[in-house]
Target: Phosphatase
Amino acid sequence: MAPPQYDFWLLDLDGTLVDVEASYVRSVFDRVGERLDRRFTDREAETLWHGLGGLRDDQLRAWGIDVGRFWDALHAVEDPEARAAATFLYDDARAFLASVDAPIGVVTHCQPFLADPVLDRLDLRERFDAVVCCTSEIGWKPDPAPVQLAIDRLGVTPESRGVLVGDGPHDVGAAWNAGLDGIHVERHGHDRRGWCVRGDRRITDFGDL
Model:
């Protein structure tokens, strides 16, 4: 069955189209913990990596962790090539990308030094008509600015009907703030997340479309 008819599609990357092996997440948080002199449990690592607790900065503050120190430590220990090697494309996302006959772009919080090796290794770069990596200058979802930048790069008309699909509430928020439909894909289950994310549609994988 073909996906719903939109004039263009925007997608989050990590947790939506691709994900990483659990062993990589564990190794990263072991090294971050060494720098912060704090051990992260498997559940804490999973919560932060996948954003299961909502906004990650809020979760860090709730745990008494300095936000700036955490992100500095995380970026310092991540190896782009190792991360790319541990990243896989969801099967349902692969089928979805092959089925869409419309402009399609990515809006991700993943920085270029991490996103680029993933796109190259999984042979995804040519599949997208636009890739926007959020920054402090561009804005972070749910700010609509990076979404609007992606729309501009797609070159679609103002009357075009679009959608943004992502695995976090900030993705749906960014969609709504930019005047798009927002679809939430729940990769982990509401029981593990502990709450439900609102959206124009809520799916468990792209096959639900």
Notes: Residues 154 and 171 are 18 Å apart (CA to CA). DSSP finds ten helices and eight strands in the chain. The domain at 8-20+88-208 is CATH 3.40.50.1000 (Rossmann fold). The chain has two domains: 8-20+88-208, 22-84.
